[in-house]
Amino acid sequence: MKFSIFQESRTGGRQHNEDRIGYRYTSDALVLVVADGLGGHGHGEVAAEAAVRSIIATFDRKAKPRLADPSEFLAEAMAGAHMAILALSGIRQLDDLPRTTCVVCVVQDGIACWAHAGDSRLYLLRQGKVQMKTRDHTRVQALVDCGQLTEASARTHPSRNILINCLGGDLSPRFEFSPKIQLKRDDVVLLCSDGVWGPLTDDAPLATLSLRDAVRAAPSFLDRVESGAGVNRDNLSMILLTWADDSPVDATQSSQAWTADDFSRTLNTTHTRLHAKEPT
Predict the structure, then answer these.
(1) How far is the CA of 244 from the CAs of 45, 68, 276, in angstroms?
(2) Can you tell me the distance from the alpha carbon of 267 to that of 135, in angstroms, rounded to the nearest whole number?
(3) Residue 36 phi, psi (nearest 5)
(4) Directed axis angle between helix 44-62 and helix 70-91, to 10°?
(5) Which of 44, 199, 202, 260 is the most buried (most CB within 10 A)?
(6) Which is more confidently placed, 200 or 159?
(7) C-alpha to C-alpha distances, 160 to 36, 73, 114, nearest whole angstrom
(8) Where are the domains of the chain?
(9) Dist. CA 207–CA 124, nearest whole Å
(10) Total-model pTM
(11) How far is CA 60 from CA 23, 75, 88, 221, 270, in A?
(12) CA–CA dist 85, 53 (Å, integer)
């Protein structure tokens, strides 16, 4: 595998950073994850931290050095992250169950697939265009999906940040999975919290990252987003992968839907070191 990675998490205009990011790789497989803790429910950073640590730990156990089934790994990792949040909240005896969004991507054999819950997004950028992006699990997006609201109206709707799906909390989350996508040389895979995409009026600034050295351009891109978001700006977190391999592997596209109840396992509490940059 040949790739470059940029990652950064910024506090923005908030007192605390409740976002967490991380990645891990072996010679054959790579995992990227972004989690954005829900501050309105309290202890959002606890949920985000637990989710990222759990997913990285699952990858460490399963990638030897390959994942037997990347799609199955995603389902197990997301379910495990949800259970890890619940377990940690029980240990700490928290009154309100912490919650977080989460988006996680796996690359193996040049094939990317991903899963998410909430409104942290993944963008696949290719030759200056948004090839694919995740669908937000929000009340407003549900209105868009059923034709009651336009995309343009959704960007400024007062309920645009109300989630209908996340990790943690009382309800079992539903995870949305992508098809398997063959990456091409110079493709950009970008995972980010809503603090990055929210201030943008459209996806064009993101798409242009694939027309240049995205890893070098990413810091100044974040600078522009942060300065344009105003004094009350949210935490901003992003992991960006530029794919530099051009040895294609045939793959069939597939998609699945799972809930956290589909998996039951004992949580491994092994502590892993996350390669996440501290906010500046």
Answers:
(1) 33, 24, 22
(2) 29
(3) -125, 105
(4) 140
(5) 44
(6) 200
(7) 16, 31, 23
(8) 3-248
(9) 9
(10) 0.86
(11) 11, 15, 20, 32, 10
(12) 10
For residue 273, pLDDT over 70 is answered with no
Q: Is the pLDDT of residue 188 over 90?
A: yes
3-248: CATH homologous superfamily? PPM-type phosphatase domain (3.60.40.10)
Torsion of CA 223, 229, 232, 233, to 10 degrees: -60
**Could you tell me the CA-to-CA distances from 180 to 6, 77, 112 in Å, in that order?**
23, 17, 6
43 vs 276, higher pLDDT: 43
pLDDT at 40: 63
For 47-88, what is each residue's pLDDT tens digit? 999 999 999 999 999 999 999 999 999 999 999 999 999 999
Q: How confident is the model at residue 200 (pLDDT cuts 50, 70, 90)?
A: very high
